[in-house]
Amino acid sequence: MKTDLPQSFRRLEYRPPVYTFDQVELDIALDPARTIVKSRIDVLPGKGFVAGAPLVLVGQDLEFVSLRINGDAHRHFELTPETLSIHSLPNEGKDPFILEIISICVPEKNTTLMGLYVSNGNFFTQCEAEGFRKITYFLDRPDVMARYRVTLQAREAQCPVLLSNGNLLKTEKLPNGWHSATWEDPFPKPSYLFALVAGKLECIEETITTSSGAKKLLQIWVEPHDLKKTRHAMDSLIASIHWDEKRFGLELDLERFMIVAVSDFNMGAMENKGLNVFNTKFVLAQPETATDADFANIESVVAHEYFHNWTGNRVTCQDWFQLSLKEGLTVFRDQEFSADQMGSESGRAVKRIEDVRLLRQMQFPEDAGPMAHPIRPDEYQEINNFYTVTVYEKGSEVVRMYQTLLGREGFRKGMDLYFKRHDGQAVTCDDFLAAMADANHRDLTQFKNWYSQAGTPRVKVQEHYDATKKQYQLTLSQSCAPSPGQPDKKPFHIPLKIRLITSGNEQVEKLLELTEPEQSWTFDNISERPVLSINRDFSAPIQLEFDQSEADLLTLFSGDDDPFSRWEAGQKLAMQMILGNRLPDAKLIEAYRTLLMDPQLDPAFKELALTLPAETYLYEQCKSVDPQQIFTARRAFRKEIAKQLQLEWAALYQQNQTPGPFKPDAVSAGKRALKNLALSMLLEADPKTWAPMAVNQYQTADNMTDRYAALSALVIHGAKEANECLADFFNRFANDALVIDKWFALQSSRPPVEGLELTLSDVKHLREHPAFKLNNPNRARSVIHAFCANNPASFHQPDGSGYAFWVESVLALDAINPQVAARLARALDRWRLFAEPYQSKMKAALEQVAACQTLSPDVREVIGKALG
Ligand code: PHE
Ligand code: ZN
């Protein structure tokens, strides 16, 4: 009988490998229908060696052909669908030996996009986390680090380009139109960093000189028709290389560094050693086809993958529970890089606000839901489900807190010690913390709770001002709600930047360290009741419980010198009013007006300050969510801002034009953002009057930011001109897959509009559209995820029709690509937070998916935890 209890992996069950690999030689004859992989491996006893133990390799969807040890056929082995166990090793495994294996895989049938697969006729691999086992039998775990020499063979006409990690050693012509290329990577690496790419690709290249004076070859490989869209990625790569030298003293260690773009990819991009593989979405850009957001995302993803070369590759993870060791740290590094690229202090602040907004919109719900996990999880069923906003974005906030506590210099000392101790090793989050602590002679024991406990801490603020004593007392208490498997929480070490704002000149600015459940601070010589500015720059990833008066919030919103806190005060005011079903009052409208008209303020900041909190963030503030009510209240609030400030919006629209050729820099992008918010607000106020101006912008735009913003304003506000522009957009960009993704996503994420049919009926038509492809992740996400995850008011219908669509889509996707299906499966995570009738209908939908007998482990884990 088959038990269907899913298998769990536990962090504390880590055991060092019994055997390890030194040198790995791969010989791969590429054929879409039958790729032959020969491996030749030097095997040695590992850290966990036990004499006589079998060598247990893993393999998936492989056809086994043969096995040799030290050159001789070896018969003592056992095959299961997922393992190859080899017994009777020479001298009980105590002596090194040479293992040779031949196996076969079928790239053209591989729709999971893990392992070796075909996309648009070219070959690609994706090995993180556990894809290498779909290429050959191996010790597919990150603490086995080996040096690789790889020979690729293919038909030259079909695959003129053959790439792998490291340096190119030689190329050869072979009989029958075949050819080969041999690559050698001088740095030991885990199998998840292996990559090969083969096919009809072309590149742009550049030679640069790094800090030590070494020359390096940089290449960006794409399909020939995309060559003209690679400049921005190349510029971003060069900027990243220079930044890492300057900020962290880290230099590129290979003679050659390559980026390859692929249109079928599960994630954003992958940091394979010297051969980064990217979703086309994060490489290709030119002004006519990519928005400012696309340009910024490309810059940050290129930087992220490049930065992994040190934080991830040179120092890697001992096991997958340590994922945040490389991801949290590398996200922190890419955020700091992007902030520096903004070119000004106010630009840095804008980047910080954007990052916090994303964290709160995406990660806070995760941290309060059934999949909540510490940044270092203790248990998983499918590691692919743990590439989460918690591991990445909260992980980055945790790294940022070291810098806040230790200062920039202290943080740099910690990084230097981390590399000094661990270069070439596979290590843990504890090792990182120890390096930070030791380099700064600090005891960071309590800081470990950020790694072990899930949930967003809540910090309650109580203040008291004594006018006679001129004394201000601040009391902070912390708590953290239970999360799965963690009923009780220990106090966190929370750095809180504060400032006491008064009209006098005794400005008190301090970094408080909250470590106890409750702590008080007294400030003397405070001449008047101060307004408290707290968690400035979002110094800790917490929720504040603070009944600050609307008057104080208005004071902060009108003039806090910390841009984050200023923005935050505005968000809080708007949030309280929306949740209280109120419209903005006269004072808030005046504050908005003053801010919008302030010539000193950055347009990008104005745009953020006038963008309302997302619906999903508002949900988290409720005990019982009525999604239609929240949508209606938020939209009414927006309409009021639009109407009351209509003259200002019109003026801002004119003032923030960016004449001349398109430039993607932060200042120009900020102006476009504000101008396009103004356009959207004008249509919100009065679509009939302003739609022609949007149509005009749509037609005359010389860049995608402006064209898409105009189209989007027409669609979102239900303008009658929308359909004609949508049709024009499709025809104009029919040959550009990434732009067609935008066309699908815009329609799928249209919120409800009075007088129009529900978006779901459009979505069902889009799914039947000839250009829709379920097996291309970008396209599938542009319709299905855009609707189920990014369009809450359309998705959450009281009749449950959105959930029925979700059930069908999860099941259809799961049969093709479990990773993409499992992401979609998470759209119902927060079902317990919803009011009736939503809650029961969401539960029923989850149960319907759970009842499917053939679910992948990926989807099974997500659904099981949601219902558990
Ligand atoms: N390691 C990649 C990154 O963060 C993400 C990734 C994970 C890509 C798994 C593919 C598969 O940069
Ligand atoms: Zn990463």
UniProtKB/TrEMBL annotation:
Q: What is its EC number?
A: 3.4.11.2
Q: Does the keyword Transmembrane apply?
A: no
Domain Peptidase M1 alanyl aminopeptidase C-terminal: from-to ranges: 551-867
The UniProt record lists the keyword Metal-binding: yes
One annotated GO molecular function is:
alanyl aminopeptidase activity
The Peptidase M1 membrane alanine aminopeptidase domain covers 233-449
Q: Name one Pfam family in it.
A: Peptidase_M1_N
The segment(s) forming the Aminopeptidase N-like N-terminal domain are: 110-193
Q: Which InterPro entries does this chain map to?
A: Aminopeptidase_N-like_N (IPR045357), Aminopeptidase_N-like_N_sf (IPR042097), PepN_Ig-like_sf (IPR038438), Peptidase_M1 (IPR001930), Peptidase_M1_dom (IPR014782), Peptidase_M1_pepN (IPR012779), Peptidase_M1_pepN_C (IPR024601), Peptidase_M1_pepN_C_sf (IPR037144)
Catalyses which reaction? Release of an N-terminal amino acid, Xaa-|-Yaa- from a peptide, amide or arylamide. Xaa is preferably Ala, but may be most amino acids including Pro (slow action). When a terminal hydrophobic residue is followed by a prolyl residue, the two may be released as an intact Xaa-Pro dipeptide
Which cofactor(s) does the record list? Zn(2+)
Keywords noted in UniProt? Aminopeptidase, Hydrolase, Metal-binding, Metalloprotease, Protease, Zinc
Give the UniProt record's GO annotations in the biological process aspect.
proteolysis
Q: Which segments constitute the Peptidase M1 alanyl aminopeptidase Ig-like fold domain?
A: 455-546
| Family statement | Belongs to the peptidase M1 family.
Identification of the protein by name: Aminopeptidase N
Ranked from the top, the taxonomy reads: Bacteria, Pseudomonadati, Pseudomonadota, Betaproteobacteria, Burkholderiales
